[in-house]
Amino acid sequence: FIHNMFYDIYSNPEPDTHYNDRDIIALYLDGKSYENIAAITNMTENNLRVRINRIKERLRAYTYAYRKDRY
Fold first, then answer.
1. CB-based contact 37:27 (threshold 8 Å)
2. Backbone φ, ψ for residue 29 (5° rounding)
3. Which residue has the higher pLDDT, 3 or 31?
4. How far apart are CA 12 and CA 49, in angstroms?
5. How far is CA 1 from the centre of its chain?
6. For residue 39, which of 30, 48, 31 has the smallest C-alpha distance?
7. What are phi and psi of 19, to 5 degrees?
8. What is the rounded distance in angstroms from the CA atom of residue 17 to the CA atom of residue 10?
9. pLDDT band at 44; cut points 50, 70, 90
10. Is the CA virtual torsion 35, 36, 39, 40 positive or negative?
């Protein structure tokens, strides 16, 4: 389960950038603002917010599936 979750997050680079979801979520979890992350990744702030929300949705889905299988 955990391996699949991290594989999905780590191996999902966008075609037009060399930053993948792992890099973006690491900056987010490190407490960087959306404005700073957007500047670092050379993305628009709106696009960044969408990407972060999609990452969160995938993590929620994995967590839900994990809990459902365990209990």
1. yes
2. -70, -20
3. 31
4. 16
5. 17
6. 48
7. -90, 125
8. 14
9. very high
10. negative
Q: Beta strands of 1-71 (E only): which ranges?
A: none
Q: Let me know: does 55 contact 26? Beta carbons within 8 Å.
A: no
For residue 17, which phi and psi values (nearest 5 degrees)?
A: -145, 155
More confident residue, 5 or 61: 61
CB-CB neighbours of 5 under 10 Å = 16
> In this structure, what DSSP letter does residue 16 have?
T
Residues 6 or more apart in contact with residue 47 via CB below 8 angstroms: 38
Q: What share of the chain is helix, strand, coil (3-state, %, to 5)?
A: 75, 0, 25
